[in-house]
């Protein structure tokens, strides 16, 4: 398994270009199941989760050609309506094929995603929504069997604005004739991007921007071409890495307003930013990093996916900062690893108290999830000495060309595989 070796202490400097959003690309790829016509998608990042999604589409019967961040998806005979556990267990978002398959074939057999490293992550909101649209959901031998004689439009209020459930139900409702209203939906920019793509496919979805979607279902959708929005989590990750190394970095090709809360918090911590409509410049800063409390929340709140990298920044603050994780239980697995690198962190339930230290020190650490893995890479970039980060496969799920992008900014980071590479 690949590891990163990072020699810390270098200030990041230069320009980094942001890739297409993983969390928009995945549901948009899945949405192509709603038509047999060709779809062309640009700015699809070359990531492990994207490659898993493409395998899923191929398994279900699509023909996929992926070159230079553009994917062309065409029909290749009839589609299957089930997925094997092998594919679902690699990525929880696989469950999102349920909505398109149900709406097209009135049945879908999908393995339950089960637990994952950052909490239980149930799919009850997805299933309740399918039931409101007229389906029955039965769990048998680890699979959810979703069936409907006919789907009807409905008014559905989500008990929590789940990103995945919003997208799954939205895709399903697009082909349910009549008016479906979804309330208390997720307002993440990735959801807007999915809506954009579905409307290009001929769907009729109106978002009021306050958590209500009105969908007028169509008999069928057609092929479409779309460019995926910039990855706000990758943008935020590079901004935080630049800040923590006291660097001088311009994050280009991003949408700064998608990171408004983070940008405010960075300014509050002492950093100076120059913001244009598609870039953010973190200026060099030698002063003290002020402690800033964050609390994760659905968009436009502080993104849970940036909680771990924010924690790494706060390990270097002057004082004590609280980090509240209110979206996922058990999303502090990076904290004990940061402590092994000299950080001062105590956690209790959903709150971490981070007391800043002067310096982090290099250590051999282990990534246990995607964003927590990035937080360790960030710590390695700041620490004295050589940090070794194991289980890089978690990080490969969500950061395109990470070591190349960091190297271009002057970092000393390289990938190696102890089973293959000789020293
Ligand atoms: C998506 C993102 C992930 C991000 C998360 C929250 C993708 C591929 N992943 O994940 O990066 O961290 O949004 O912004 O886009 N929940 C339930 N029942 C459900 C569904 C969710 O209880 O049926 C709970 C979850 O356990 C969690 C919370 O709702 O505590 C948020 O989950 P959700 O918004 O669904 O996250 P994902 O869509 O899985």
What share of residues are in beta strands?
Answer: 15-25%
Mean pLDDT over the full residue set? 95
Report Rg: 22 Å
Q: Supply the CATH class of the largest domain.
A: Alpha Beta
Measured between the Cα atoms of the first and last residue, the distance is 16 Å
**Bound ligands:** uridine-diphosphate-N-acetylglucosamine
CATH architecture of the largest domain: Alpha-beta prism
Which fold name is given in CATH as the topology of the largest domain? UDP-n-acetylglucosamine1-carboxyvinyl-transferase, Chain
Low-confidence stretches: none
Please describe the topology of this protein.
Blueprint: E1 3-7, E2 13-17, H1 22-31, E3 39-42, H2 48-60, E4 62-67, E5 70-75, H3 85-88, H4 98-105, E6 107-111, H5 124-132, E7 136-140, E8 143-147, E9 155-157, H6 163-173, E10 178-183, H7 189-200, E11 204-207, E12 212-217, E13 225-227, H8 232-244, E14 248-252, H9 260-268, E15 273-275, E16 279-282, E17 294-295, H10 307-314, E18 320-324, H11 334-340, E19 344-348, E20 351-355, E21 364-366, H12 370-382, E22 386-390, H13 393-396, H14 402-408, E23 412-416
Parallel strand pairs: 2-14, 3-13, 9-10, 17-18, 21-22
Antiparallel strand pairs: 1-22, 1-23, 3-5, 4-5, 6-8, 7-8, 10-12, 11-12, 14-16, 15-16, 18-20, 19-20
Bound molecules: uridine-diphosphate-N-acetylglucosamine.
Uridine-diphosphate-N-acetylglucosamine binds at residues 23, 26, 92-93, 119-126, 160, 162-165, 190, 304-305, 327-328.
């Amino acid at each position: 398994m690949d590891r990163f070796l990072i020699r810390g202490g270098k200030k990041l400097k230069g320009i980094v270009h942001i890739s297409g959003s993983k969390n928009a690309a995945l549901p948009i790829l899945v949405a192509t199941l709603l038509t047999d016509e060709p779809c062309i998608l640009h700015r699809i990042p070359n990531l492990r989760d994207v490659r898993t999604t493409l395998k899923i589409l191929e398994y279900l019967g699509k023909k996929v050609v992926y070159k230079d961040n553009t994917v062309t998806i065409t029909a290749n005979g009839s589609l299957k309506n089930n997925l094997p556990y092998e594919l679902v267990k690699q990525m929880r978002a696989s469950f999102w094929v349920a909505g398109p398959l149900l709406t097209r074939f009135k049945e879908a057999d999908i393995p339950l995603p089960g637990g994952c490293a950052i909490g239980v992550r149930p799919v009850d909101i997805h299933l309740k929504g399918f039931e409101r649209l007229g389906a029955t959901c039965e769990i048998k031998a680890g699979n959810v069997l979703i069936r409907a004689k006919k789907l009807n439009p409905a008014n559905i209020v989500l008990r929590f604005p789940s990103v995945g459930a919003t997208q799954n139900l939205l895709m399903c409702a697009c082909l349910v004739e009549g008016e479906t209203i979804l309330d208390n939906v997720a307002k993440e920019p990735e959801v807007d991007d999915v809506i954009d793509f579905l409307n290009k496919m001929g769907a009729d979805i109106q978002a009021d921007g306050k958590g209500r979607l009105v969908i007028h279902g169509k008999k069928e959708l057609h092929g479409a071409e779309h460019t995926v929005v910039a990855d706000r989590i990758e943008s935020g990750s590079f901004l935080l890495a630049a800040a923590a190394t006291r660097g001088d970095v311009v994050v280009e090709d991003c949408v700064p307003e998608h990171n408004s809360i983070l940008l405010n918090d960075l300014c509050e911590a002492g950093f100076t930013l120059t913001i244009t409509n598609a870039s953010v410049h973190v200026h060099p800063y030698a002063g003290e990093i002020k402690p800033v409390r964050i609390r994760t929340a659905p968009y436009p709140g502080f993104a849970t996916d940036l909680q771990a990298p924010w924690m790494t920044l706060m390990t270097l603050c002057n004082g004590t900062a609280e980090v509240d994780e209110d979206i996922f239980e058990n999303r502090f697995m990076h904290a004990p690893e940061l402590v092994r690198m000299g950080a001062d962190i105590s956690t209790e339930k959903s709150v971490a108290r981070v007391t800043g230290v002067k310096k982090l020190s290099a250590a051999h650490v282990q990534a246990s999830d995607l964003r927590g893995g990035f937080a360790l890479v960030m710590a390695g970039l700041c620490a004295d000495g050589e940090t070794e980060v194991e289980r890089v496969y978690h990080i490969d799920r969500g950061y395109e060309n990470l070591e190349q992008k960091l190297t271009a900014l002057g970092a000393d980071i390289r990938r190696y595989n102890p089973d293959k590479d000789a020293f």
